[in-house]
Amino acid sequence: MTTEGVPLKGYRGRFAPSPTGPLHFGSLVAAVGSYLDARAAGGEWLLRMEDVDEPRAVPGAADEIPFALERLGFSWDGEIIHQSRRKTHYRAAFERLRLDGSVFACACSRREVADSALGPDGAPRYPGTCRNGLPHGREARAWRLKVEPGLVCFDDALQGRICQDLAAEVGDFVVLRADGYFAYQLAVVVDDADQGVTHVVRGADLIDSTPRQICLQRRLGLARPAYLHLPAALNAAGEKLSKQTRARPIHGDRPQAALVAALEFLGQQPPADLPDADLDDLWRWAIMHWDRSGLPHRRSAATPAAYS
Ligand SMILES: [Zn+2]
Predict the structure, then answer these.
(1) Which in 46, 132, 175, 295 has the greatest CB count within 10 A?
(2) Mean of the pLDDT values across residues 293-305?
(3) What are the phi and psi torsion angles at 114 (to 5°)?
(4) Once rounded to an integer, what is the mean pLDDT over residues 254-280?
């Protein structure tokens, strides 16, 4: 399964962090994994700030993250894309869905949906209340995509075949939110297509989003990239690292140590003296020895204590 020495023509990968706080170990792992998979294949690697959820974006983080990546020795291709500046593209995709009848206006409040039946994962499933028109006297809040019954499947390069019955497990899902922002699922699909992304390598905390994204790609007639979901980094309490769980920021003062920790997390086998190498040599080793077959086949794994 190694990509070493096998140039994949037209490989274009990306790293797409949400600027909700400084870079932490979980995002570093996704950055390192996506970067090495792209570079080992002779591919491009793009950087995108996923700030479509503008109320959650932290001022300064969208500048801080690229700065941190630079200090860690990453180099990306092209301009950094910001979702907050791409609303006209999301609007155009939404209008296509609206014109072909794929979406409907929904009047339900968050509370009303939360009170409805739960899907198998325990999250509320939209019960279809407004699917055939708004209830009398109610006003549109959000817009939802109509999902059809049946499995949506994809073959993940690491996690194997993943299937989800969107109608049974999620229900019709939001593409334009009640607060006027486009949903993450729609933005990601439009961005990956517009940027010509061929390979999505990201944390497995996003694996359950992938069938919704595939559903949107089909409705919009967009190409589907190949997916590889890396284990997500968890803290000692078993929570995904985030600003909310007070994950430690990755500082640029010891970049080699952080990068070697990420390589080990990804099942690569860095030599004992790699933390002492200069950054260029470290990256040269990591690209040359990138081995997909070393990646752990798990959805999550513990973060090293120094970074959790
Ligand atoms: Zn509704």
Answers:
(1) 175
(2) 91
(3) -65, -30
(4) 96
Q: Clarify whether 243 is annotated catalytic.
A: yes
Q: Are the CB atoms for 190 and 218 separated by under 8 Å?
A: no
For the CA atoms of 158, 159, 165, 169, what is the dihedral angle to 10 degrees? -120
CA of 55 to the centre of ligand 1 (A): 23
What is the amino acid identity at position 297?
H
Burial 157-189 (b: 16+ CB within 10 A, else e): bbbeebebbbbebbbbbbbbbeeebbbbbbbbb
Q: How far is the CA of 185 from the centre of ligand 1 (A)?
A: 18
d(CA 136, CA 158): 48
Phi, psi of 46 (to 5 degrees): -105, 160
Q: What is the mean pLDDT of residues 235-261?
A: 82
Q: Identify whether the C-beta of residue 234 lies closer than 8 Å to the C-beta of residue 247.
A: no
The two tokens of residue 293 are: 């077959």
141: tokens are: 């809040």
pLDDT computed for residue 272 by the predictor: 96
Q: What is the dihedral of CA 298, 288, 32, 302, to 10 degrees?
A: 40
The model's confidence at residue 236, banded by pLDDT at 50, 70 and 90, is: confident
DSSP conformation class of 149? S
Outline where the chain has alpha helix (H). Answer: 25-40, 61-71, 87-99, 110-114, 166-169, 184-194, 210-220, 255-265, 279-288
Distance from the alpha carbon of residue 56 to the mean position of ligand 1, in angstroms: 24
Residue 139 CA, ligand 1 centroid: distance in Å? 10
Q: Is the pLDDT of residue 296 over 50?
A: yes
